[in-house]
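Design request, tokens follow.
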């Protein structure tokens, strides 16, 4: 595997030296898209939030700022992402407002109905089976809870089609391809939006 291919594969599960390098680029690289995604959230006052596939943790920090009354639990299956997200949110972890732990979205250890809000930025491309993972998200949300997905790819853009060939197991979805399994697992209201000039999508589902 060439070095560039190895580097881009670090987006799926960062590890080692290349994973550290990749994580350094992620916070700044995804910030605009993530903020655009967060702005799609309705007026809610979540107390318990879970952020899936948190990477280096910048979006955890944004959720903590936006919802000062909330506790944010962040989950990532990469030990290196967990380490970096803890570093980024050190003050909030120490203050008890934030917990960051290793875990796989396809098999969550949380009890049913634990969270008011779940978020996923630039990560569903790598989840092992959307229905399985979305049913876990559905299970851990409270009735009325929201799930926000925000991606830089609308599943049709040239860049993601190139990355799908380079990154093992990556699948870039259209909004419709995300909406269908969300409805199948039980989400009642599912809406989506496309950025006016970039190939970004945001999908909001309510339990
Ligand atoms: C491209 S990074 C995005 C990180 C961050 N959300 C952001 O926007 O900068 C994808 C992250 O999702 C994590 N991830 C992928 N599949 C996962 C799964 N099944 N369970 C938990 N984390 C997962 C990866 O380890 C990686 O840290």
């Amino acid at each position: 595997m060439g070095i560039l291919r190895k580097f881009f594969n670090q987006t799926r599960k960062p590890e080692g030296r290349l994973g550290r390098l990749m994580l350094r680029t992620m916070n700044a690289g995804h910030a605009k898209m993530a903020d655009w995604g967060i702005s799609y959230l309705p007026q809610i006052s979540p107390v318990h939030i879970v952020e899936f596939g948190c990477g280096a943790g910048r979006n955890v920090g944004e959720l903590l700022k936006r919802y000062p009354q909330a506790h944010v639990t962040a989950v990532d299956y990469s030990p290196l992402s967990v380490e970096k997200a803890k570093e980024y949110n050190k003050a909030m972890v120490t203050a008890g407002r934030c917990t960051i732990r290793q875990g796989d979205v396809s098999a969550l250890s949380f009890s049913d109905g634990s969270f008011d809000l779940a978020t996923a930025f630039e990560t569903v491309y790598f989840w092992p089976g959307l229905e399985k993972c979305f049913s876990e998200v559905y299970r851990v949300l409270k009735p009325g809870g929201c799930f926000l997905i925000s991606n830089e790819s609308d599943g049709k853009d040239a860049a993601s089609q190139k990355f799908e060939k380079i990154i093992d197991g990556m699948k870039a979805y259209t909004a419709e391809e995300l909406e269908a399994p969300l409805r199948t697992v039980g989400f009642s209201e599912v809406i989506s939006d496309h950025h006016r000039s970039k190939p970004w999508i945001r999908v909001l589902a309510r339990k």
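Comment from the thread starter after seeing the answer: thanks! The first strand starts at residue 48 and ends at 52.
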